[in-house]
Amino acid sequence: MKITRIETFLVPPRWLFCRVETDEGHVGWGEPVVEGRAHSVRAAVGEIAELLVGADPLRIEDHWQVMTKGGFYRGGPVLASAVAGLDQALWDIAGKARGVPVHELLGGPVRDHVRAYAWIGGDEPGEIEEEARRQVEAGFTAVKMNASGRMSPIAGPGEIDEVVDRVAAVREVLGPGRDVAVDFHGRVSYPNARRLLPLLEPLTPLFVEEPVVPESMPQVRSLVEASNIPIALGERLYSRWDFLPAFQAGVAVAQPDLSHAGGISEVRRIAAQAEVFGALLAPHCPLGPISLASSLQVAFATPNFLIQEQSIGIHYNDGNELLDYLVDPSVFAFSDGRLSRPTEPGLGIVVDEAAVREADKQGHTWRSPIWRYPDRSFAEW
Ligand SMILES: [Mg+2]
């Protein structure tokens, strides 16, 4: 079998898909994208694809090594995401060629279903309790919220209380039998994070995510030690080499993104690395259907998997939904906040190619918001 053609599709709301075609009729799909930098990743996929056309798609590990290291310069969001999407597509082909779902190739299932959480926002304080209630009614057993909107670099008591009150309100709705995860989104400064973590401790969050921006890795150990709340991070880390200092600092939950951190091949390895440090895997996935399908394949084959993010109804998906590009959306049907094991070959989904080709004509120009403080200086989003 040989790879004959690689195409990319820029589809709303903010995604990029790749399609890898072979001379034996098997087609693999991947989702190589960085939110807000889809065009850059598209260009990177085009360059890296030169290494694959004409090659045997089943030599996945060799391709991963060459795609990742063969350009001399390596790593970072754009290059690692380009590799990630192509890697997903190669695994999709490998599963389809052998007639099994990818998790069967990763050692077989280790669980019967995958727990997922629902996103409930948090930038707008008034709506958050209502949204939590809605997700409980939909059957979810865990939700994730932003801790705050824009926050002063050293917050006063009003801002600090607002964060704690908002999480407390959600905890009240959830009761003791469900979980709330709190995302600091790198927008909470180091001193604010130090102050907030002990105050949130009595509310028993599932974890606090990105307590600081990823480049502040030297501060992570002291944040791990600031409370007993498990610290999660990793959506802006791209390889096992990036993750090592996080695990050494005591991070409890690793959140690599299947579309950013080198794909199924590398996330699988990051999970194994996490296991050495007693950490758990909770893949980041505010993205599209191919990214979620890839996440699930890893989740079903990974013993130290904790919980899956997913973006159905997320605020970014303006106008288009996660299920729009699937022939049969029932593969992502939740029951009690859980997803069942995909049984179809490859990634377990059938991409609606006609819908994707049509959507690519429209494309998108989604960009991350730029936030500013009242004095107009830059604020982390
Ligand atoms: Mg996050």
From TrEMBL:
Q: What class of enzyme is it?
A: lyase
Q: What positions does the domain Mandelate racemase/muconate lactonizing enzyme C-terminal occupy?
A: 125-230
- Which domain of life, per UniProt? Bacteria
Write down the SMART domains for this protein, in alphabetical order. Answer: MR_MLE
BP-aspect Gene Ontology terms = amino acid catabolic process; D-galactonate catabolic process
Q: Which Gene3D superfamilies match?
A: Enolase-like C-terminal domain (3.20.20.120), Enolase-like, N-terminal domain (3.30.390.10)
The protein's UniProt keywords, in alphabetical order, are: Lyase, Magnesium, Metal-binding
What is this enzyme's EC?
Answer: 4.2.1.6
Kindly indicate where the leader peptide sits in this chain. none
Q: Which GO molecular function entries does the Swiss-Prot or TrEMBL record give?
A: galactonate dehydratase activity; metal ion binding
Extract the PROSITE patterns matched here. MR_MLE_1, MR_MLE_2
Segments forming a coiled coil = none
Q: What is this protein called?
A: Galactonate dehydratase
Asked if the keyword Magnesium belongs to this entry, the reply reads yes
Instruction: Give yes or no: UniProt keyword rRNA-binding.
Output: no
